[in-house]
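Attaching the record inline, Q. Sequence:
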Amino acid sequence: MTYQTYKQQRAASVISKKICGLLGTLAIALTATSSIAQTQSLRMIVAFPPGGPVDFVARSISEQLGKELNQTVIVENKPGANGIIAAEYVIKSPPDGSVIWFSSTGAVAINPGLYPKLPYNTERDLAPVSLVARNDELLVVNPKNPATGPKDFIENAMNTRTTMANSGMGSVPHLAAALLAAATKANLADVPYKGAAPAITDVMAGHVDAFFGDVPGLINHIRAGKLKPIAMAAENRHPLLPDIKTFKEIGVEGVDSDNWYAIFTNKNTPPATIALLSAAIKRTLETESVKQRLLNSGTLPASSTPQELGALLKKDSEKWARLIREKNITAD
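Structure, as predicted:
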């Protein structure tokens, strides 16, 4: 065999291996597509009642996601027990990507630190698929409150007891207030409510001083002049509120609080199926009509890879668990 013949055979062998690899990858992708397509519909489980902000985002992406997957996506609401009912349902579902869980931060990143006997383990029982949206917390007050920004608010709260409404002990609004109190030593008093709606109502009525909440749940009240925005507990300002500073801008660190939304599925779902779902969610969120609908509501669309969501989940789970331990926070 000549050297030239050897080189030609070696090159042919390399090309053959590459083709086999590509065919293998294609086969895995086709298997994942087939696995999902075996069911006529994909069920998106939401742990909140219809009409709320989480349900709004789920329904805003469901139609386009169905187009991307060539399936019908059905949104099913399974509220109760702070997300535990929905989590257990998804964990017991077939591991084929036909049932996915649309969750907010609480059930996946806060519950493990809040409930000592949680009937599920996020890391053991659930597979991250993709981030869907970010919801940084916004501090608001009654329009008659003298504070005009974060510096004023903190100075006033250092000298005067300031009541902080929240949507329940261990909720993101409650934990955001705890971070602010720890970072500034402000005199903040918790006033827990059963949900965000009554908490917001009492701030507008002047019965309590302030509230941390997701922008989508507050923006219409701000536009109507019923609430005054004070500061974002975030890395950056919000696009709908470009004049509202972040706490970081005045030198207050460690207050960032993001009530993100994400999609998970059964832990035993094949990686190729998870990758297929994640890519479809990314394309959905890049669709202009979906993106604008979310942005106009105050929700910031944000996709991720399964690995990036897993890293975010780990980081925030550790952050919230540490705060819950340090402040001895217990569930309602």
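Confidence is low (pLDDT under 50) at residues 22-35. DSSP finds twelve helices and eleven strands in the chain.

More tomorrow.
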